[in-house]
Amino acid sequence: MILESTSPPRTTIELVAPILERSNLRAGIDFHLCYSPERMLPGNLLYELVNNARIIGGITPESAQAARDLYKTFVQGEIHETDATTAEMVKIMENATRDVNIALANEFARLAEKFGVDVWEAIRLANLHPRINILSPGPGVGGHCISVDPWFFVEAAPEVSALIYQARKVNDEQPHFVVDKAQQAFGELRNKRIAALGLAYKPDVDDLRESPAVEVVRLLQKDGAIVRAWEPFAPSAKLEGIDMAADFDSAIKDVDAILLLVNHSQFRSLDPASVASKTKARIAIDAVNAWNLKDWQAAGFSLHRLGDAKSK
User: Terminal CA-to-CA distance of the chain, rounded, Å?
Assistant: First the structure.
């Protein structure tokens, strides 16, 4: 029996094993029991299923070896054996690390606006250091993993997970920071018509689960803005209370501003002069650093970039 779903540490030995042992069979003796977290990227599942490294945690060394033999029939990546609780912790550590690093980047964006700095220039320069790799800020953290898994640590051991908890707070609050950027552009959001580009939780996927972009749209609506959203990777998606455009052109027609929330490749490649010919909007807000400031200004737009105080 192999558990792959992300679970709090000790789930395999304290929850799963007792349930299975109601059969009067003993875990690790009468049957093998392991935890092996999946590490697959949406949109690239089959390749990563075969090629990614596997961590196999058995409740006994023999269980880990049996699971290794099973995975070796199709996994070409490295396979590492450990105990079940360590494997559970590894999975949550991976996602918590990503969450904390994104929170740090988001705080840098807030600080840059306080100090009159372009955070994107500052990050580029800081990353020239050979041991520094600051991630990109944005509207927050979404998806069914990174925005969820760190809470397992916080709930299980709040007294020793203060940093993880704070990172979760920072990233959950980040959609408000994007709305503040929109307010800087307008002064007043009520009755302003805004085209929101992108609702997925990350670039070039169709997954809208826990998406911060969706939260931004709802916050804008709460402040009185009239929002029309376009998600090219999920064109038929229906979200309660959100006006979904049928295509890009209809999304930007008759709006006062264009708000970029997801760094989809097709949004990065937009020609600002062509966009200007299709909309009356001359305010653009870039929350993901996808658009060149000078190019959009040359096309007649006032471009406001998240974390860039110089673009105000």
Answer: 57
pLDDT (tens digit per residue) in 108-149: 999 999 999 999 999 999 999 999 999 999 999 998 889 999
The verdict on pTM exceeding 0.90 is yes
Residues 186 and 270 in one domain: yes
Whole-angstrom distance, CA of residue 152 vs CA of residue 244: 34
CATH of the domain at 73: 3.40.50.720
Among residues 34, 72, 91, 222, the one annotated as catalytic is 91
Contacts 24+ apart (CB under 8 A), 292-300: 296/272, 298/272, 298/273, 299/272, 299/273, 299/275, 300/276
What is the C-alpha separation between 228 and 251, in angstroms, rounded?
6
Q: Residue 312 catalytic?
A: no
Domain with 35, as residue range(s), is 2-89
Strand order of the sheet with strand 226-230? 243-244, 226-230, 193-197, 257-260, 283-286, 302-305
Tokens 């653009």 correspond to what residue?
Answer: 284
Q: Catalytic residue at 34?
A: no
Q: Which one of the listed residues 34, 145, 181, 192 is annotated catalytic?
A: 145
